[in-house]
Design a protein that fits this description.
Elements (H helix, E strand, L loop, with lengths): L1 H7 L11 H8 L12 H6 L22 E6 L5 H12 L7 E2 L1 H4 L6 H10 L1 E8 L1 H5 L1 H13 L7 E5 L17 E2 L3 H27 L1
Parallel strand pairs: 1-2, 1-3, 3-4, 4-5
Helix pairs in contact: 6-8
């Protein structure tokens, strides 16, 4: 009976004598912080890894396949506003390359040739739709050329309405969401963000094809 009593009073193993299995299970359990909260490490482990964002400024990105990032289609009456937009875009960290017809067209070249070349060599087209734009047959021609170039490219044609009723939104663009310009700074930022998203998606698709 003496040996049985000694067995009952045998001391429990210390923490340093625990089996490897018990140590492993303890390290994998959620940790508790000093403020009483628990499960932080566990919740973090279930978060999906962030989606990598392509660097549109990288030397080998698809962005450099074209001469311009943005072509601005507008009425001459709205030139002052367009110049502000171009200045804003070109001053961004991405240093967007903008085609502005009165500034960038080659002297002596045919107007229609310059326009078609600019549309083909630009990733995105901003349509500044104002009352003057709607009344100008040349602006409508630019709009039709852009739609013919890429009718189903999401984010490539960016309609921007200013001082135009929604009911007067060109029917050719009804399948595209537009930016309604109220505060100029906000609209400029929306245009910039849309161009960035398009270029990122372009670079992502190009990388996927290469892989």
């Amino acid at each position: 009976s003496g040996w049985f009593r000694r067995l009952l009073h045998k001391p429990k193993p210390s923490s340093s004598e625990r089996s490897p299995d018990s140590v492993s299970s303890a390290s994998s359990s959620p940790s508790s912080s000093s403020d009483g909260s628990s499960g932080m490490s566990l919740s973090r482990s279930f978060h999906p890894s962030p989606v990598s964002v392509p660097d549109i400024n990288a030397s080998g990105s698809a962005r450099w396949d074209k001469s311009y990032d943005v072509c601005i289609c507008h009425s001459e009456v709205d030139l002052e506003l367009v110049e502000e937009l171009v200045s804003y875009l070109e001053g961004q960290p991405e240093s967007f390359r903008c085609f502005l017809q009165l500034r960038d067209a080659t002297p002596g070249s045919a107007v229609m040739t310059e326009l078609c070349d600019a549309l083909q060599n630009s990733h995105c087209w901003v349509m500044l739709i104002t009352p003057s734009f709607l009344q100008d047959p040349w602006c409508k021609y630019q709009m039709h050329q852009a739609l013919a170039e890429a009718p189903m490219a999401n984010g490539r044609t960016i309609p921007v309405l200013k001082a135009v009723d929604r009911k007067d939104y060109p029917k050719e663009l009804r399948n595209l969401y537009y930016i309604y310009m109220v505060l100029k700074e906000n609209s400029f930022r929306q245009i910039r963000d849309t161009v960035v998203r398009y270029l990122q998606e372009l670079c992502r698709s190009s990388t996927s094809k290469m892989e």
